[in-house]
Amino acid sequence: MTTDFKKQVHEKLALFINQKGSQNKAANSLNGVSSALLSQIMNNNWENISETMWRNVASQIGHSSKEWVFVETTDFKIISKFLTDAQQNANVFAMTGDAGSGKSKSFDLYVSDNKNAYLLSCAEYWNRKEFLVQLLTSMGVDYSGFTVAEMMNEIVKKLKSQQNPLIILDEADKLPDTVLYFFITLYNRLEDHCGIILCATDHLSKRISKGIKLNRKGYKEINSRIGRKFIELKGVNYNDVTQICIANGVESTKDIKEIFNDSECDLRRVKRKIHAVKNRV
Hints:
Order of helices and strands: HHHHHEHEHHEHHEHHEHHH
Strand content: 5-15%
Oligomer: single chain
Protein name: AAA family ATPase
Distance between the termini: 29 Å
InterPro entries: AAA_22, ExeA_AAA_ATPase_DNA-bind, P-loop_NTPase
Helix content: 55-70%
Domain ORC1/DEAH AAA+ ATPase: 89-207
Radius of gyration: 20 Å
Largest sheet: 5 strands, parallel
């Protein structure tokens, strides 16, 4: 492992700690990482830190040694606009976009650049307690021994003590109803104080519409709190792909057209195709 890699992690970690508000909060938001270890890294005491731990810290704070130049796509600009609005004005929005449109990366970058912004990448297996654990962890709060009610109260208390907090629930369509109802609780207890963003594929908007038609518990309340509207992202266009290709070393018009036509408007596929084009024999 090179010294340059360690220096890059050091720089990225400094930004991460600043974003979280303190070294202890940063450590609490990372799995298997102590505040003492962060102190060693920040104080350049690197001799006794294993390569495994360097990689662990790097991956959790979003650092990668692989070169890839990020480009601000059309959807990135739209997402950034609504995230800023939500955080600065305690607004609540719901947005939908296709898989591979760059939503999650846009959220990662926003959170890394803005204090008191917390991102949850939701999962199907989360129950009510796991949802709260994940939110407290992202906030850098020790939740040891807390009940579900105590965790919710702690979240509300901490967020109300902060200036312009923001919660981003990515892939919110994966949450079961019992957990999705927590959105209503968070809204009710943090209205006019905390911004909230729900984001997913269009499966979420279809789920909400169906739930309303079937008069399912909570769905009308959720729809009301998001302003009865889903913001639809525009998806990946040719100009986006062109900028990404040029930024990452592919400038041939022919190659760019090939990459776009093969991408199915999925940025993950764009990245794979750029790699393939650059490594042609």
